[in-house]
Amino acid sequence: MIEFSLIPARKTVAVLAGLAFAAVCLPQIALAQSTSTRGDLRLSNDQPIQIESDQLDVKDQEAKAIFTGNVKVVQGGMTMQSGNMTVHYRGQGTSISSGSADIQSIEVGGKVFLSSGTQQATADDGRFDMDSQTFVLTGDRVVLSEGQNVFVGCKLTVHMNTGEARLDSCGGRVNIQLDPKSQKKP
Questions:
Q1: CATH number at residue 135
Q2: pTM value?
Q3: Would you say residue 6 has pLDDT above 50?
Q4: How high is the pLDDT of residue 93?
Q5: Structural domain boundaries enclosing 27
Q6: 102 within some domain
Q7: Of 142, 9, 140, which is closest to residue 87 (Cα–Cα)?
Q8: Cα–Cα distances in Å, from 157 out to 49, 64, 148?
Q9: Phi (first) and psi of residue 69, to 5 degrees
Q10: Closest CA to 33 of 166, 136, 179
Q11: From CA 27, how far away is CA 12, in angstroms rounded?
């Protein structure tokens, strides 16, 4: 098992905010073919990021790091697990292993599981693009849940700059199950 720990740079925290945000972004949603919503999640810039995997291949010439086999990323109360994760970074003289890499994008695949407190999300694949500040989860069934509230679609797109999120049905229908007992009392 490879363990890799970083004290996060601002952009690295944004990546994990995107991952965690996907798991918690749908507090109010209406049944439709596709829908938009707004959510909010704040993470600390000073929390370390712990990454574990069975194997790590750093390819500085290609500006990428490939984590394979039982990938687990933890920051604070947020956990992301997947079969693989590829981190693409840019710039000469930067390296993922030194924590100085300017991350361009992150791709996760092989069944993605996100958890933050009582909120969870599952998908087949995910991609976070740093330039557009967009995180996309895709799969046959993208499932978001908090307690008994469950949202199912096939593509979740989160725009980190605005906090806007969209759950698409990809030709079918978005399915939502809401538990009236989960409503916050004033």
A1: 2.60.450.10
A2: 0.73
A3: no
A4: 62
A5: 2-179
A6: yes
A7: 9
A8: 23, 24, 22
A9: 80, 110
A10: 166
A11: 25
